[in-house]
Every structure is written in C-alpha cells, then in structure tokens.
C-alpha cells in the first residue's frame, strides 16, 4: 500500500527532478513556454499516455498492447504553453513524418523483394539502411515531446520540457526512485 507523502508548501507541484517535471493531477503549471520558460498568454492541454505495467509476450502481443496503449490507454493531462518562437512543435511533426516514411520504405523494400523473387541487391540494402535510420529518427524525436516516464500513483514524472522551463520550478525533494512503481490510478 502506498501513502501520500507529507504535505509541503507546494504540495501539488509542479517540481523539477533532473530533466523531468514532477506533477500531480491537481498541479497548476506556470504560464510559461515549455521550451524556453518565457511567459505566455495562453496555455493548452495535452493528454499524455501513462506508462503501462503489463508485459506483452511475443511480437504480436507487443504490437497489440502498443496499439491499445496509444489508442485507449489512461492519460495524464498536462497544461502547458508555447511562446511565439516555439509555438510549432516541430519534433512531433518530424517524428510523424519519419514514422510514415519508415513505413513507406519498408513497403517499398518488401515490394522489391517480391518483384525480384527474394533477390537482395544494392537498392534493397539501401532501403534497409534508410528504414533503420528513419525508425531511429522517429524514436529519437520522442525525447522532445511530452511523455510520462514514470509514476508513483500520486505524481507523474513528465519529460519533454526544456531547460528554460525547468529552471523556473523548485527542486523535487520527494521520495526516491526506490519507491516508484508504474501504478497510476490516483493520478487521473
């Protein structure tokens, strides 16, 4: 059984813990740009998927669990703003384009193999290399988008905030990583 930590002056957060923002379901994020920390007029809400604890078995189980996680998994609502300079979330768009391009390259590769009776040549090798690079880019861009890295049931560690925003928050002095699980029922 987990217990809520002792009350502090800023009991609902948010706080800074390294490169993460620690928040509760009732945290009020400052009206600042999530990249540079500049004051902003308007904020918006983003529903970020919470990490899952159930392990998938096999590739098909992993794909099925991943689809359910993205489509219907529990979410943590993050209220955030962006200044005029950072108003377009380029990392989101670049990751999406890299993911779509990876699928197109993979289909092109499979089509070439079928058309050439499984013969592997320079073009197929180039397509394999392009696929690996595009998948790496799509995964790499996720480090610049909002994501919940872990939870303890009361708090969520949210990544994707810039150094400027993080510098505006007080330091987290809560529980250690030993107490962290991926239970999150009390967050929403």
Structural account:
- The protein has 188 residues and is α+β, with helices and mostly antiparallel strands.
- It contains four helices and six strands; from the N terminus they run βββαβααββα.
- It has helices at 58-72, 90-115, 122-141, 163-166; strands spanning 15-17, 20-23, 44-49, 75-80, 147-151, 156-159.
- A hairpin with a 4-residue loop joins β5 and β6.
- α2 packs antiparallel against α3.
What is the topology?
Blueprint lengths: L14 E3 L2 E4 L20 E6 L8 H15 L2 E6 L9 H26 L6 H20 L5 E5 L4 E4 L3 H4 L22
Antiparallel strand pairs: 1-2, 2-6, 3-4, 5-6
Helix pairs in contact: 2-3
Helical content stands at 25-40%
Elements, N to C (H/E): EEEHEHHEEH
In percent terms, what proportion of residues is strand?
A: 5-15%
- Output the radius of gyration: 20 Å
- Average residue pLDDT: 79
Task: Kindly summarize this structure in a few lines.
The protein has four helices and six strands; from the N terminus they run βββαβααββα. The protein has 188 residues and is of the alpha+beta class.
Output the keywords.
disordered N terminus; 2 domains; disordered C terminus; alpha+beta; elongated; 188 residues; 35% helix; 4-stranded antiparallel β-sheet
